[in-house]
Amino acid sequence: MEDTSEPVSLRQLRALIAVGDSGSFTGAAEQLGMSQPSVSHLVRRLEAELGQTLVVRGRDACLTPQGRAIVDVARRAVLSIDGVLRECRDMTQLKAGSVNVAVGHVTAATLLPEILRRFHKKHPELEVTVVDCVVDHIRAKLLAHEADIGLGALIAPDDSKLVVENLWDCGMALFVRDDHPLARRASVDARILAELPCIQLNPNAHAWLAISRKLIAHNIYPRVEQRAVLVSTALGLIQADMGVAMMPRIATMVMPRGIKGIPLSEPELEWPISLVRLANYPLSPAAQAFASVARDTIKACGKRAGA
């Protein structure tokens, strides 16, 4: 047999709870900020729906045993619902919330500290968890929902599962010790890479593969003698006079004394800094706020660098 009954509403349950708490329809109306007839109408509709009297009316209003049983359960349910709604509103208003950010090692070592500083200053109530990883693992972190946003040198324009927003192409530089013969150059031709002992950073990342293809297209084959994943490792090798390193120009932000970055040209080599997220999957308000701060910070860094 088809059930033609109407669903019980939260407003009806709130009205019944208020009547039980206050002991009168007038008191319930004041508590809820409603008129007394409106409260009475809600309770009567609830009683009609359930086919039972829930409130004994008189000089005072008191609940029947079944009315008390409903209120006992409804009170817990309404408190839980109100808590979830309050939490959701706080997140929307950026009073609470968290975001997980997967960051490639180069970006984590260079741009991330300034992004975090600005974010915490603007949104002190929000939490950020940094998932630092090699840049090729960012996609997997997003797909596994271990991260809400990815930040780094990502190139995936043909990936239907991701939205990649390129924020800045900072270019490449050759990093050498201050006492290196090239240290006084204003720029250096990329062909020199074939003549110097080179330290290669994370060669399997998409951005590095794109750079390698461009160098090969110009018949340039760097003399790679060392490989490293982390910027800090590459810097240590340069300091130990183990070679020179081609790295993004943003690495100058974390250069220790004694190391200099010289812009590379001929050909111009690109190093994109991108913001990436899952396609067709909404960002939380906290994640949207982080993305906004990241865009502004990286844009400011680009202006300072003259990009």
UniProtKB/TrEMBL annotation:
Transmembrane segments: none annotated. GO terms for cellular component: cytosol. Keywords: DNA-binding, Transcription, Transcription regulation. Gene3D superfamilies: 3.40.190.290, Winged helix-like DNA-binding domain superfamily/Winged helix DNA-binding domain. The keyword Transcription applies. The keyword Transport does not apply. It comes from the Bacteria. It holds the Pfam family LysR_substrate. GO terms for molecular function: DNA binding; DNA-binding transcription factor activity. Residues 8-64 form the HTH lysR-type domain. PROSITE patterns: HTH_LYSR. InterPro entries: HTH-type_LysR_regulators, LysR_HTH_N, LysR_subst-bd, WH-like_DNA-bd_sf, WH_DNA-bd_sf. Belongs to the LysR transcriptional regulatory family. This is LysR family transcriptional regulator. It comes from Bordetella genomosp. 8.
